[in-house]
Amino acid sequence: MTPSGNRLAGKVTLVTGSSPFINGGIACGLAEEGAKLVCIDYRLDYAEACAKEIRDGGGEAIAVACDVTKDEQVQAAVKRAEEAFGAPDILVNGAMLQIRKGLLDMSADEFRRLLDVGIIGTFLFTQHAAKSMIRHKRPGSIINIISTEGHQGNLGNIGYGTTKSGLLNFTRAAAMELAEHGIRVNSLTPTATDPTEGRDRAEAWGVDWDQVSLSIKRTDLSSGDQGIPLGKRPSPRHYARAAVFLASDDAEMITGFDLRVDGGAISRYWRWNPGTKILPKD
Asked: Is the pTM value of this prediction over 0.90?
């Protein structure tokens, strides 16, 4: 992590879910623009490694272990941020759980656990971070991480997609409630992501990380970069740039909005499957 700008200079930033992949990349990208990071994860080794990368690069960061479904732990995490750096200016809600099962195979407890981590966790951090922003009179920016699965129906992953789609309207509703306090709430939609950066970061951090594989194997499902109109999957660094924009004053009049960084995946017409061989004309 090498500081490269100052669009977020001194901004106290909480990132939940600090794995080596998407959220770790976002945290490092925000730090590169001068933000002070509070790296939060259920796994302390992830949070500590993320914070260490930022500090090693000349930034400021601390690590906090937290179960985002526990109100008292969320409050403690926000308080720890205040003690270390001051009231939060930016919150990125990225904590999520993957249980790749479909409707006919998933248990109610598994479905409920996904909702707890994805929706309840986002609710609690948004609530307590916003209260801190309001109490300290800080206009802030809150960014909720979605997924293309929140916009489309996907096979074999019903709990994840349902959770992410719920966060889309949570974002809009929270944006309306917090607008009078000068707090903007937006969402950022990644898609299937190139795992290279995540693997490299996990190796550098010295932690284990395995990308969750597809829950079902079918001949009619594409893989890799196939299906992305721009020809390749995004990497975490692409999401980081979008998060920097949404968190910065460049987006001062944007709230309740979903910014899709998906290589065009959601916009493409269903009949067009980029990356497949074009049949020769007769």
From this structure: yes
